[in-house]
Amino acid sequence: MTERRVTAGRWVAVDFGVYREATTPQSWHQRLLAACLAGPAFASHRAAARLSGLLDPAPVEVAALRHRRRRSADVIWHESQALFDNDVTEIEGIHATRPTRTVIDLALVLEDSEYARVYDEAVRRRLTDHFSVLQALEKLGPLRKGSARVRALVEQRLNQRDPESDLETRFDALLRRAGLPTPIRQYELCDAAGTFVARLDFAWPVRRFAVELDGYRYHAAEAESWRRGLRRNNAIDDLDWKMRHYTAWDLDHRESEIVSELTPHLMRA
Question: Averaged over 128-148, what is the pLDDT?
Fold first, then answer.
């Protein structure tokens, strides 16, 4: 029956033993599902991140238990030697790794800045948390590739408040690449009487210097909001603090200029 339908052009092979109706449009989800069914395998790494809404676009990327990995020209295959029952779930009808396992696997395939961005987004959306990641690392064992990289990022995040936006994650990565001093994130600035003045995105209290990242939430043209911002900035100036403001556009187009502007403030004795 299968051969007859293929010969008649009604079915088209998508993967080994997996077919689609010839009239059905091809898609990324379709190809991923076919690879998982043919494996058998499960969506992993960047593909699992895309299914969880953490990354887009992403290649068709799957993992299979040891000795079940196959080769496909349009599919990235991984071999998993340790897969636990709670590592896999079903997303959009496709078996895929859960977010905690996904962010661990991503350490093998993403660059530092992109990895930190995806990890922070998973934590912000409460798809996972630092301690769940550490527990999963313990189960996988110390010899697993990428474990040291994951642990280093988790330890960084445990030592300070988590980034509250993708913009903060990107700025944090810029500081690290430039070798600039580590700030305190979401620093609460108070006056001499202990009265709260402002919460600063990034602060270097010893240098009395701060950076604010202005995202879309600050762009509303509301008069009272604008006046509050001016009063806040005046109060910060009264405490002899210096402050720089940067936007997403600045991070997209002015990275080197930002570093040049910050260096005199942060690297002085």
Answer: 90
